[in-house]
Amino acid sequence: MVPNKHFCQGPHCHTYTTTDRFLKSKGIIRGRYARLDADYQPNSNGYYYSNANMDKYFCSQGCANGWLAENMSAIEMGIPVPFIRERRFTNGFAKKTTTHEGYNGGTYKTNSIERIDNNTN
Ligand SMILES: [Zn+2]
What we know:
The two termini are 25 Å apart. The protein has helices at residues 52-55, 61-77; strands spanning 22-23, 28-30, 89-91, 93-101, 107-115. The longest helix is centred in the middle third of the chain and has 17 residues, at 61-77. The mean pLDDT is 91. It is built from two helices and five strands; from the N terminus they run ββααβββ. The site of zinc ion has 8 residues, from loops.
């Protein structure tokens, strides 16, 4: 089922290496969906959620800040800012498992998502 959500408008959302953005089968990092449904009603249940109109468009405060930083000069000049309507992604990532030595002579493993080449889409 396709969520009734906008894609996060954060200009760099599709470049952050978090586990929830990583799609192992394709080796890509994908932009997130916005936090709230596109038709979310701020006053439903008598509860006013002051950031609702922002969270319909962004996954996080960091992405909203990134949008402001990137686009305010265009807004000032009256230049339209493109709305992101397709899911963006960055190619070239893989899950890497690292084995570490533990205190008791045993070992443990950790996982990270790392860049494997410089292809960018
Ligand atoms: Zn985002």
